[in-house]
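Page 37, continued from 36.
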């Protein structure tokens, strides 16, 4: 008789993964990041169990998008007050807050519940090439997920 393996908290080994967003396509990059944060790259993956790794994204200001998305893709936020709808296109958001572009793209690929909010705390995005997490010895994402562009 086989027993179903269900990972316990002491079985979980979390790592820090470094992702360079330089010349990466936004959506393809976000799917890789979400997959690593969910823990789908691990053989002991179980849905609903937090097995994911911490992810550090650098060079967020240097991402690529295809087509006319720089002008056509809009981001909206609402203050909750009458007339409080604010919109900005992708080019404007990249100029003001480039890290929010990747955060919003990754959030769209995670569950929109308590589990997804817990996973978002494992994402660190920086606009430039520097990050303060050198003490965690982050591994490049190429070591975890092999590139499929061959």
């Amino acid at each position: 008789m086989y027993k179903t393996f269900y990972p316990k908290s002491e079985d979980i080994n979390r790592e820090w993964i470094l992702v360079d967003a330089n010349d990466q396509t936004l959506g393809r990059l976000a799917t890789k990041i979400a997959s690593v944060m969910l823990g789908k790259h691990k053989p002991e993956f179980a849905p609903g169990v937090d097995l994911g790794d911490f992810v550090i994204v650098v060079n967020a200001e240097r991402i690529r998008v295809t087509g006319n998305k720089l002008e056509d893709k809009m981001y909206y936020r609402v203050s909750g007050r009458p007339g409080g709808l604010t919109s900005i296109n992708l080019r404007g958001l990249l100029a003001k807050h480039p890290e929010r572009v990747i955060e919003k793209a990754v959030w769209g690929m995670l569950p929109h519940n308590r589990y997804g909010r817990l996973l978002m705390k494992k994402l660190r995005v920086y606009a430039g090439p520097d990050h303060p997490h050198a003490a965690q010895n982050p591994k490049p994402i190429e070591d975890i997920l092999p590139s499929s562009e061959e």
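The first helix runs from residue 26 to 38. Flag for discussion at group meeting. The beta strands are 16-20, 54-58, 74-78, 85-89, 123-125, 139-140.
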